[in-house]
Amino acid sequence: MAAPPASPTAAPRSRVGVGVVAALAALLIPTLGAGAGPATAATPAVSSGAAPATAPTPAVSSGVAARMAALAGLPAEARVGLAAVPSTGPVFARDFPDPDVITVGGAYWAYSTGSAGRNIQVIASPDLVRWVGPIDALPTLPAWAVAGMTWAPGVVQVAGGFVMYYTVHDGSSGRQCLSVATSTSPAGPFVDQSQGPFVCQLADGGSIDPSAFVAPDGRLYLVWKSDDNAIGKPPVLWSQLLSANGLALLGSPSPLLTQTAAWQVPTIEGPAMFALNGRYYLFYGANLWNTSSSGIGYAVCAGPSGPCTEQSLSGPWFGTYGSLVGPAGPAPFHDAFGGTHLAFHGWNGPVGYVNGGVRSMWVDSLGFAAGYRLTSRDGGVFTYGAATYLGSVSTSHPNAPIVALAQTPDGNGYWQVGSDGGVFAFGTAPFVGSTGALRLVAPVVGIMPSSTGRGYALVARDGGLFAFGDFPFVGSDGGSRSFVPVVGGATSPLLDGAGYWLARADGHVDAFGAAPALGSITGPHAPVVGIVASPGGIGYWLVTADGSVYSFGSARYFGAPAPTFGSPPIVAMVATATGSGYWMMDAGGGVFTFGDAGFAGSLGAVKLVAPVVGAAGGPAGSPCLC
């Protein structure tokens, strides 16, 4: 293994993320070939501000274009998120196989296997619809590498610039190996200063298809495939910890997955890892890359270093369907608003290059079947879908009624809190303090977890805040003279959660710390009962007892239950992990789903001893293109 090149220097940021095609083109046009330029797309007008439940839902066509066109060129405060609708065609119809997409300052940069004389291709977009390029992101290969077999790049942003891992032919061994290049700009040029391969498992036939994975704790990993099938052995997918700058391998590689299912023969390849709500997913391509039998599968892993359990034993997670033929090269990523997507390639035109086909890039919304939990006033906990039951305080007969439920960031733990501030922790949720032994001026109405899950704050009806563990206290409404009760709070993940919002029953919202002030409502028809933060940390929803929903910032309105006379009041809302949907729960245990929130069950038909008073989510479940 050769010594890594020097770390990249500071990257200029002023030209990146302007959010318009012209600005992106300015980065690429100096080296664009003839005929390569931005496509155009209509941009419908979108208004900003709160969206009440009675607002009509605009009609949209399916596909990424419909999801993103409303956001293109708009100021950040006017963008309201992405709908989770399957795409119906490629977003970049030219040859662009093995894509990798990163988000930089609100713009999108996609990299792919070399084509048309380019070593590694790069294109750019403000909206995942209109693309500029391609150009060669890696115009010069290192002296030890042989041109013509350069593919499957993976790019990650680190402090000071960008690092690209890619597959290239080693002239000395005659095998495909991994190398690494750096740049101060996502547009390149990336420069490879190495004297030899970064990773090359010669005893295993070589190494190919690298991708970078940033774990929830911020550590960086390299994921790749050993090219065992090139020497007649079953291929293996690997992971290894990287240094913070991405230029040195730490420790030893860990095997993640090998070819076990009949549909995968002759190979699995192109691994990419993704984490959500405490669960790790390993996506990969399998079967013959140049046939319609190629497909994408996935495994669930215990962590970045495995072990991983195959989930696609009987067939691909998804394969050829409709106009999509032979999908492979999966690359999960977050958009600028916190939504999750999967980029991949599929054959466009005839299958196979010898028949005149090309592998074009597709982008689909990536959803995850999840679950949720309800809690009742007597301390009962009811679980659905991927959310597991971890215990409850109902058998302990708490001193005060339970008023709220909150989950840990990994979804594998939760807290129940009583009106006296008593806290009851289950699963991975730690107990770090309570006000149960104190005499409170006003009862507790809610609980806000810290971004790490190692702390929480209790919210009192008078706006007082009691912080425990590592929850950062940055202010409260405790000294205000308002007679309108506070009904709940929500933390913002901006700046590691050093900010939060408190909401009152009349719809007034106060922002503290890093949480941005995004607005309030006045004169709701029914009292506000809760505030829920969008996963991106730049928006929130307010929900009222009659089921009206008001959205602010990046939080998008997906619908509300139809008003029904005599129905139980709404008491809680839970956002999906993607931010592209939510559940609403009423006091009778009824559950209403909107956006990408899936229905997994309810208490609506059960006669309850005590009403439902709160709800929380659970760990992420099976992925879907939804």
What this model shows, in words?
The chain contains 2 helices and 38 strands. With 626 residues, the chain is mostly beta strands. It folds into 2 domains: 280 residues, Tachylectin-2, Chain A (5 Propeller), CATH 2.115.10.20; 249 residues, 7 Propeller (Methylamine Dehydrogenase, Chain H), CATH 2.130.10. The strands form 12 sheets. A 4-stranded antiparallel sheet has the order 1-2-3-4, covered by helices on one side. A 4-stranded antiparallel sheet has the order 8-9-10-11, with no helix packed on it. A 4-stranded antiparallel sheet has the order 12-13-14-15, with no helix packed on it. A hairpin with a 4-residue loop joins strand 26 and strand 27. The radius of gyration is 25 Å and the shape is elongated.
In short:
This protein has 626 residues and is mostly beta strands.
Main sheet attributes: strand count, strand direction, barrel closure: 4 strands, antiparallel
- Uncertain ranges: 1-20, 29-86
CATH class of the largest domain: Mainly Beta
CATH H-level homologous superfamily name of the largest domain: Glycosyl hydrolase domain, family 43
Number of helices: 2
Radius of gyration of CA atoms, rounded to a whole number: 25 Å
Class by SSE composition: mainly beta
Which percent range fits the helix content?
under 10%
User: How are strands sequenced across the largest beta sheet?
Assistant: 1-2-3-4
How far apart the termini lie comes to 42 Å
How many DSSP E strands? 38
Which keywords apply here?
four-stranded antiparallel sheet, Methylamine Dehydrogenase, Chain H, 2 domains, 2 helices, Tachylectin-2, Chain A, disordered N terminus, 2% helix
